[in-house]
Design brief:
Elements (H helix, E strand, L loop, with lengths): L1 H21 L23 E12 L11 E14 L3 E12 L7 E2 L4 E4 L4 E13 L2 E12 L5 E4 L2 E2 L3 E2 L5 E14 L2 E19 L8 E16 L11
Length: 238
Amino acid sequence: MKKFLLGTVALAAFAGPAFAADMPARTYTKAPPPVTAPALVYNWTGFYIGGHVGGAFTDGTNLMGSDARFLGGVQGGFDDQFAPNWVMGVEAQYSWLTGGSNNGTLFPGGTLVTGNTDQLGSVTGRLGYTWGPALLYAKGGYAWRDSTNINATVGGVATAFATDGNHKDGYTVGAGLEYMFAPNWSAKAEYQYYNFGKTTFTAGPPDIVGASFRNDEHTVKLGVNYRFGWGGPSGSRY
């Protein structure tokens, strides 16, 4: 028995190195490089809707006075990105304004004239340049307002008068910066100027006949848009 065990041990001792020599050499593989996320594609093409808040003010040459008035409203439109860093689109916007013309304008003969524009609308074209999530743009087009809502009083009593028109239609121009801060969402800061020409009194108390005033509004707005189809195919990668 002892001879059998000794023989087995000796056989294993000689067979081990021979078996190891017949085994293939161990191979080592290089770890794959880390996978980087693909560049994010910002695509401005598509429809959007949103809302805005801000303020409206004048240069003091019309019946609204120079004090700022609060405004809020909604907007919607469509953009198309091309060439590949340019964006062209169209936008419709509607705003409600608070407040009136403060104390109005008192004429030398004692006639007090007040006015109030409490709704503004526009349909504009828009052209901008984009880099990554940012879009710098200019806009311009048709503007509309509800009415001048003019009133004239003498000694606190309403008096009849006439003007050369209601000046409800005009034009608007503006510029702004918009930024995509999350998928499908963008925020904007915008300046927009509205002009509805001049209104002239053609009849009424003698001290106001022939007098005229401007119908314009300067507005500053902050807004948020929800964009449909964000992140689709686009010609630009940033």
